[in-house]
Amino acid sequence: MLELTKERVTEMIGKKGWECVDKCSDVMMRAMMMGLQEAPVGDFREEKAMVVRLIALVTADKLVDTLGRGPLPVEVMPFAAPFCRRRLEDLELKPTLRMHEERPFVTDNFNVIFDCATGPIDDPARLERTIRAIPGIIDTGLFLGTADLVVVAGDGGVRELVRRKPRDR
User: Which domain holds residue 143?
Assistant: First the structure.
């Protein structure tokens, strides 16, 4: 199978302006909307705010009908972490504080991450709105309707899934 790296894809498509080439844990195609579940990293708000063109890199096994196979990262203000944990538990999301070397993982913006076990997400947009309505939550790892291009590597080579309708910027 062809290996996709950020460098290889940047060479293939050419980098123009503020583009972000990123790997995702899952990609869902539904009704001309590309829904991404970000690989478990941090600082989602910054990624969403700064990127003009989002290019996602995935292998064919990451194309799914329903998001939720892996944990959903949720970025939280540290002072609100206890309250947010309780609210996420009320939603049955089973939040776990992300740790790094026996201490809470801290993002570049000095926030913490809860990794939430969602199970299959039937309505990603509703879940996103519900989580983001909790005071103290900064953002989630759901990138809904944000990808302009998904580059998929499989046994048959590389194919590009291009967004049909331009997204709002």
Answer: 6-162
